[in-house]
Design a protein that fits this description.
Blueprint lengths: L2 H10 L1 H10 L9 E2 L10 H18 L1 E3 L3 H10 L2 E3 L2 E3 L4 H5 L6 E4 L8 E4 L2 E4 L7 E4 L3 E4 L2 H13 L18 H15 L11 H15 L1 H6 L4 E6 L4 E2 L1 H12 L3 E9 L8 H22 L5 E4 L1 E5 L6 E2 L3 H17 L3 E2 L12 H16 L4 E2 L5 E2 L4 E3 H18 L6 H4 L1 H7 L9 H6 L15 H6 L5 H15 L7 H16 L7
Parallel strand pairs: 2-11, 7-17, 8-19, 10-12, 12-13, 12-14, 13-16
Antiparallel strand pairs: 1-7, 2-4, 3-4, 5-6, 8-9, 14-15, 18-19
Helix pairs in contact: 1-20, 3-11, 6-7, 7-8, 7-20, 8-10, 11-12, 12-13, 13-14, 14-19
InterPro entries: MttB-like_sf, MTTB_MeTrfase
Protein name: Methyltransferase
Pfam family, one: MTTB
Length: 514
Amino acid sequence: MTEAAARRRGRGGGGAARRAERTAVSIETAKYIERNIPNFEVLNEEALEIIETNAETVLEEIGVNFVENPAALERWRQAGADVQGERVHIPRGLARELIKTAPGSFTQHARNPERSVEIGGRNLVLAPVYGPPFVRDMDGGRRYATMADFEKFVKLGYMSKWLHHSGGTVCEPTDVPVNKRHLDMLHAHMTLSDKPFMGSVTEPSRAQDSVDMAGLLFGKEFVQDNTVMTSLININSPMTFDDVMMGAMEVYAENNQACIVSPFIVGGAMAPVTVAGTLTQVMAEVLAGIAYNQLCRAGAPVIMGAFVTSIDMNSGAPTFGTPEAAHITYGAGQIARRLGLPYRSAGSFTGSKLPDAQAAYETSNSLNMGLLSGVNFMLHACGWLEGGLVSSFEKFVMDADQLGVLHHLAKGISMDENGQGMDAIREVGPGGHYLGCAHTQANFKSAFWRTNMLDYKPFEQWAEEGERDTMTLANLKMKQMLEQYQQPALDPGIAESLAAFVAEKKASMPDAFS
């Protein structure tokens, strides 16, 4: 179907879409977080200057590799870098100069304008888990993910009040061929949710498919003038930029779509064991990656990422929620702000195999450090389990509930007349209670954050209901949400054009599972 035909179909289906919108159940989504609390900073000015100087030394003297990408090497030569084979030595100050064209904040548009988000500044946008090949729930245990699982996660994300973003690869559906699954995943995000979403990065042509499908959903001209996708571009730490990720980034940058340029570091394995050493490498890598992004298209929206954790020196397994990871996350936030870039880090990280006490401790530490470090885009905000190998349905629901805590913490403390509460103190006086006073009656609905998940019932009622633990409650909540799910309205012409695009693309190539 041609673009013009798709537009004609869209106009013809407008009345049906408007009728569907009027009858659809409205799902409440909280606005992205706007912080009214200070960022927590662990590095003083001297420490920051040392890290910046060392990062520039890494770029100039050691260099970074851009592998199997002659076009990237030529771009660097033209920009003034010293290219030796696939090693790029970036003169001191060049990368800093190139990244000045990157915007400090940008809007990612959702197909429902009320769900659009502002990434950067004092804002925090929360997005779900990304990338696990396995899923887990109480009914089916741990198993390879399927497309049906993927669609359930998209629906849960759409239904979750505190989650602002539909995400990307919320799990990796292994029952669909590798070369075709991105089409089904994007189609699910575009049709089962109306929140912002992420594009595919597993191959440059798949990034182009993402741009083309976004053109059908939003209109081609709108996509070229506005950001409608945010996509994850991982750096192969230490200091290697592969052709697949860079190829996908080139597509997105050239089409004005946002990229998260993010080192993927397990400290002690892919970076030094020290906090300052790791921050030096993080800064060198993001400077090189974001500078290259701007060489592709000056002014393209970009996010500085830092996925960093430590390693268990006994087993070699990654660890989460550790103080070292917090130090690095706080420090990287300071670096991002000095560079004037939006910042991505943190999430519901845990190495636990189940949504248990270990998962709760590690996740709580990781979420709070994300809030306090000034993160603007938090990927993996809910559902992460087993070091990122598993997307957990129960933990998705548990984490999504706890994201409400971040919203309320970020509000800070109100010091207006109502916030001071002096009327209540005067009314009650010594020896009284506040339950029935006018101030309490006026504020009780909004005074305290309320969980939709956790159990605060008396022991006797809890026992009568079967002594259910949090994972059991989450399983019930997840099933209830899926039962109540209703697909958000979409113009029938657009829906048809998207379905036709996916069908034609899939029919044009044989299945490939590697």
